[in-house]
Amino acid sequence: MLVMLSACAEENAQHDPAPHNPHHTLSTQLGGHSFHPSNTAPDVFSATHENVEQESQARSTVCSALKAEPTLTLTLMFGLKRPQGADITQHEWQEFVKTTITPRFPSGLSILPVEGQWQDRVTGKIGQEPSRFVLISAPVSTPNLSQNIAEIRSSYQHRFNQQAVGVTITPSCSAF
């Protein structure tokens, strides 16, 4: 399940579960939920309306100066080991990128090698493995965005017997 933690300060955001901005809408479309921590939550979640407004204005100013458009930055997280420990080969990974990710995002993406750490959902055991982050910057208005992300995640899970493919969605602006 995908849960977006948000420090939104919009009126009644804590009591209104309806998505009210692009990252909440995408979270809901991907089968997740938006969560608004209460004002008694740790400081990281207790942004005031004034702070959120200042951050939004600063972002808007920089985005306008760069002639950048509103986008969502998507980070997909792929582990490269099967449950029994066998590696997903470089050839298998490249084939997956070529046949599954690139057709859905032909205008561009970035792939970063990383070392991942995760907790097995069944055993609770902590594991490490080589992983890949796929970074995609997509206009907010991209057709079928949530469907494309869901299909990529599902395909990888089924093809390589993975428990999960992580995704993080961040509102942003981009200029190329």
Commentary on this structure:
- The chain is of the alpha+beta class and 176 residues long.
- It has a domain at 69-174: Alpha-Beta Plaits, CATH 3.30.70.120.
- 30% of the residues lie in helices and 28% in strands.
- The chain has helices at residues 22-29, 49-65, 90-101, 145-160; strands spanning 3-5, 33-35, 69-79, 110-119, 126-139, 166-174.
- The strands form two sheets. The protein has a four-stranded antiparallel beta sheet with strand order 4-5-3-6.
- Strand 4 (110-119) and strand 5 (126-139) form a beta hairpin.
- The radius of gyration is 18 Å and the shape is globular.
- The model is unreliable at 1-29 and 31-45 (pLDDT under 50).
Overall mean confidence score, pLDDT: 79
User: Terminal Cα separation, in Å?
Assistant: 32 Å
CATH architecture of the domain at 69-174: 2-Layer Sandwich
Spatial order of the strands forming the largest sheet: 4-5-3-6
Tell me the strand percentage band: 25-35%
The unreliable regions are 1-29, 31-45
Shape: globular
Structural class: alpha+beta
Helix residue percentage = 25-40%
Number of strands: 6
Give the CATH topology of the domain at 69-174: Alpha-Beta Plaits
Major sheet description: 4 strands, antiparallel
The CATH class label of the domain at 69-174 is Alpha Beta
Region (Disordered): 13-43
InterPro entries: DUF3574
Biased composition (Polar residues): 24-41
Protein name: DUF3574 domain-containing protein
